[in-house]
Amino acid sequence: MYNILSNRYEIEKEIGRGGTSIVYKAYDLQAERAVRAIKEVSKENSAVYELAKKEAKLISELYEQDKSNEFLPNIIDTIPNDRYNFYIVQDFLDGENMDKMLENGPMPYDMFIESAKQICSFMEFFHRTGRVHSDMKPENIMVLKPSNTLMDGVHKKSIRLKFIDFGTAIRNESGVVGYTPEYASREQYEQRPNIDKRSDIFNIGATFYHMLCGKKPEKVANDTRALYSNERFIFDKNVNIELKKIILKCIEDEPEKRYQSCNAIYRDLCRVEKHSNLKYIALSFVVSAVCFSVAGFSAYRADALSKENDSNNYSININKGNYAEAIKIDHTNKNDVYSKLIETFTDDEKLDSDEDNFIINEIKSLDSIKETDSNYGQCMYEIGNAYWLYYYPVDSNLNDLELEKARITKSYEWFEKAVNNGKFRREDAESYNRAVIFYNIGKFYAEIDRKERDGTDNSAFYNEMWNNVSKMAEYIDEPNEVVSARVCQTLLTLLSRYSAKFGQIGITEQSQLEIIDSIDEKIYSNGEVTYLNKYSINISKNFNIDAVKQKIRMAYSD
Q1: pTM here?
Q2: Which tens digits make up the pLDDT trace of 119-163?
Q3: Is 444 inside a domain boundary?
């Protein structure tokens, strides 16, 4: 193995080894020593080599389709031209394989709920791409090291999952039904035709069982026959009964009896999370009522009690400003609760990982804000703005460009919803126009890597981008200093990275330097930063205006 691969990646050490590949930890010398994982696949076995190439391509496609970049590692590079090996360079995932983690026993309740919801969110996304996974299991899930964040005055650790290994999904596309025996459905074992997402739902249920019980299910078949689910999944007596019900519905032997979508599982997980304490109260009431032989009336009263408690708790949380807790009780946009939530999330001028997870799991995954809501477009704009201005990715190994792309691509899908909303366009032209510019910048970042790889980053693409750069430059003098600082940061990044491309489409050196000079005049006076806002000052500390000017001049000197 090279000490430095492809004159770019400095190999530190081997961190994993399988039957067909070796994984190394490395540093990217062209990205300020950002940490990477490099997978080495031997070319001796042509089938393994071809599968590795297809998997890298699939992960790249999925990463681009997942506009929030929540679920997958980013494929940074592939190196196919080595004589003996094929190399895949991707984000370094600082964490532990879930299968390894479960060797220590079952997950705690809170960790199970959060992890299960993220699994459902990913698989719902995966199914929307028209694919079947066929091998969801703890071994194919990475649990990143939790970040310790402050929420409501209490330090809490947030759980973040990444999903790996899509070899079985690729084989599915060629008609080969693959599976892992402990997590497989009967139809996978029996090689039935037309395997669909309901087999994935079985795999999810088997994964949940492992997470909840700390042990793998029995294999789908023994030496003589296929086993039924009641033979394979043996629950301990102390298992949460509501979670057990969810798992049992996932692992029904017949596909039509299972959940029919991952969103349906997600909703039931939310219901269990919300009613974990209330269920005990309702059950006690029902037991008492049964003693009086009034079962029908007691069920009605228990339901009424549940609704009354929900309504009371919702009002209490709204009055206290606990908008996140209120949304967990009622996901409708009553009291303009989502706008108030985003406002509280960004009061500290930072959108942290816990707040990001809440937006993904309680707003995005549930599609809880409907286009029919009167302030839908405004709310989408506010969420996009929060990500654009304040989001900090969990992965501290990202370099400046990657941080910029992660922040902007996070905002992209929310701005897209806003600009497609006619009511928002008609009623708030100023915010709408800004949303259009920020959306177009986000779209550029979302597409640029693929277009550069495919060679489709043509002059029309960069012309459109320059038009948006010019429009964004109008916000350099924005009175809101955070907006101004972020605009300057984005412009500096774009001109530093793509000045030569802009030059190739006829944009003059002077046009680019004029934007840089405008940034310089806005930020500095007699060498001192003019911003008063501490957050904006911190952003501007990373600016190197002279270096960007030098890059522009070099682009035109070639």
Answers
A1: 0.63
A2: 999 999 999 988 999 999 999 999 998 765 444 444 455 788 999
A3: no
Helices (H), 38-152: 46-65, 98-101, 109-128
**116 and 32 in a common domain:** no
pLDDT digits (tens, 9 = 90+) for 199-230: 999 999 999 999 999 999 999 999 889 999 99
3-state class (DSSP) for residue 91: strand
For tokens 């190439």, name the residue. 53
State how many domains the chain has.
3
Give the CATH number for residue 56. Answer: 3.30.200.20
Question: Considering the domain boundaries, does residue 308 fall inside one?
Answer: yes
Same-domain pairing of 119 and 266: yes
Q: Is 124 exposed, middle or buried (0-12, 13-18, 19+ CB in 10 A)?
A: middle
For the stretch 381-426, pLDDT in tens is 999 999 999 997 765 566 777 788 888 988 999 999 999 999 999 9
Q: What are the percentages of helix, strand and coil residues in the chain, rounded to 5?
A: 55, 10, 30
Residue with tokens 């994935």: 200
Which of 59, 91, 123 lies at the terminal end of a domain, its last residue? 91
Identify the domain boundary among 258, 275, 292.
275
71 & 138 share domain: no
Strand, coil or helix: what is 481?
helix
Cα–Cα distance for residue pair 482/4, rounded to 1 Å: 40
For residue 140 the two structure tokens come to 């194919």
Which are the contacts of 450, defined by CB distance < 8 A and separation ≥ 6?
A: 60, 64, 456
CA-based end-to-end distance of the chain? 36
Res 280: pLDDT: 44
Is 172 a domain residue? yes
Q: Are 262 and 297 found together in one domain? A: no
Put residue 158 in one of left, alpha, beta given phi > 0 → left and psi -120 to 50 → alpha. Answer: beta
> Looking at the structure, do residues 42 and 106 belong to the same domain, yes or no?
no
Q: How far apart are CA 300 and CA 139, in angstroms?
A: 44
Tell me which H or E stretch contains 162: strand 161-163
Percent of the residues in the chain that have a pLDDT greater than 90, as a whole number: 54
Q: pLDDT value at position 430?
A: 92
230: helix, strand or coil? helix
Please indicate, yes or no, if residue 178 is contained in any of the structural domains: yes
**pLDDT less than 50: residues of the chain:** 149-155, 277-295, 297, 300
